[in-house]
Design brief:
CATH class of the largest domain: Alpha Beta
Helix content: 40-55%
Number of helices: 12
CATH topology of the largest domain: Rossmann fold
Oligomer: single chain
CATH architecture of the largest domain: 3-Layer(aba) Sandwich
Structural class: alpha/beta
Distance between the termini: 44 Å
CATH superfamily of the largest domain: Response regulator
Order of helices and strands: EHEHEHEHEEEEHEHEHEHEHEHHHEEEE
Radius of gyration: 21 Å
Number of domains: 2
């Protein structure tokens, strides 16, 4: 069976939202197809994440359909391109998926947009993201939110332990104002505090900045043992690494796992060689996933979220196979069961909808000979 993909938000669809909002029923047993909504960034800076995530989701769903579907029903993906961090467009797309297409569950969005998760909560629609790391607005827990991204506390603790073992005990943080960077920085500060590592200072730049020379000159004067670069987008990391080399700043660069993208290797690998170090989830079935991915698409994943997106699709499919159909039934199933996972071996969600730290192992990676490889001695 082939999986049908419907892209874009048309004017007709938006008009339909106005006239038919609330009239469409959610997936029910006996329908010809089971619809799953997808909200991903397929354009803009986040597309390197979103495009690979869509391929991961598509691969999982194609496997299910080729095996006979879910209890004989085919799975249909309804895909909306949200651009990059475009909250209003993403909310419009979400409401279209709910009110026009009648989905009970949505995979996405790419990168954190708290406004989107709040709307999903209000609509009581399950939102399972391949890469979100926030999930809580203020003190309020989100009941319908899940993420298959690796837990940030565990990732940053693994990175801090690596820094301590290498005697990198004087660190400067460089980040932008994106919510992802803010959360990563918060988790990193918690982790280095546990390891008794000193933070000499922190520099924050506007999201989208690509010229870091002013900050790097100041950092060089501080003589840190390492720089922690907390960015989500690929666009600033390459220029940052290049400028570090140009300023002859012989300082290791610590990073979050989002740095593991093919675009960095394609364009800036010579500046990342034996310089960048990050904690990556030790993907249990990595060889199997990459083999299947490359066989299907004749290319490697560009962004790091492809296996996480595959896992999100498999978790949803597993819920549907259990006869869960409404958002509440799917939510309850996700919270109370364990799922097979390419990334973690077994996937289990904690009380906040994130992957349980108990199933997550990390390995330190660096760049050598133009490839991301495990760091020797990690």
């Amino acid at each position: 069976m082939k999986t049908k993909i419907i892209f874009g938000i048309t004017i007709a669809a938006i008009i339909a939202i106005i006239f038919f909002a609330g009239c469409t029923q959610q997936n029910q047993p006996g329908e010809e197809k089971i619809r799953i909504g997808v909200l991903l960034s397929l354009s803009g800076d986040a597309a390197f994440f979103g495009e690979s995530e869509l391929k991961g989701i598509q691969m999982a769903v194609d496997e299910v359909n080729e095996a006979g579907g879910i209890n004989g029903q085919a799975v249909e993906l309804i895909v909306e391109d949200t651009g990059t961090l475009n909250t209003p467009a993403t909310i419009t797309a979400l409401q279209k998926l709910v009110n026009v297409d009648g989905v009970s569950v949505i995979i996405g969005p790419t990168w954190d947009m708290p406004g989107v998760t709040e709307v999903a909560e209000k609509e009581k629609i399950v939102l399972i993201s391949p890469d979100n790391i926030v999930g809580i607005t203020g003190e309020k827990k989100l009941e319908y939110f899940f993420s298959t991204w690796q837990p940030q506390k565990a990732e940053m603790l693994a990175l801090a332990k690596f820094a301590k073992e290498r005697n990198l005990t004087q660190i400067v943080i460089l980040k932008d104002t994106d919510i992802y960077s803010e959360v990563i920085t918060k988790r990193f500060l918690e982790a280095v505090n546990q390891q008794r590592i000193n933070v000499l200072g922190s520099f924050s730049v506007i999201t989208g900045t690509k010229d870091f020379r002013t900050e790097l000159i100041k950092i060089k004067e501080m003589k840190p043992d390492a720089i922690m670069a907390a960015f989500v987008s690929e666009s600033p990391r390459g220029p940052l690494l290049k400028q570090i080399k140009e300023l002859d700043l012989k300082t290791p660069v610590l990073a979050n796992s989002a740095v593991e993208d093919q675009a960095l290797l394609n364009n800036f690998s010579q500046y990342a060689e034996n310089t960048v170090f990050f904690a990556s989830p030790n993907i249990v079935r990595e060889k199997e996933f990459l083999s299947k991915f490359e066989a299907k698409y004749q290319t490697k994943p560009v962004g790091p979220g492809a296996p996480n997106a595959y896992d999100a699709a498999i978790a949803i499919v597993t819920a549907y196979k259990s006869e869960a159909r409404t958002a509440d039934e799917i939510k309850t199933f996700l919270k109370t069961h364990t799922f097979p996972s390419m990334t973690f071996g077994q996937l289990q969600f904690d009380e906040n909808g994130f992957v349980s730290s108990d199933v997550t192992k990390f390995v330190i990676k660096t760049v050598k000979n133009g490839q991301f490889i495990p760091y020797e001695g990690s």
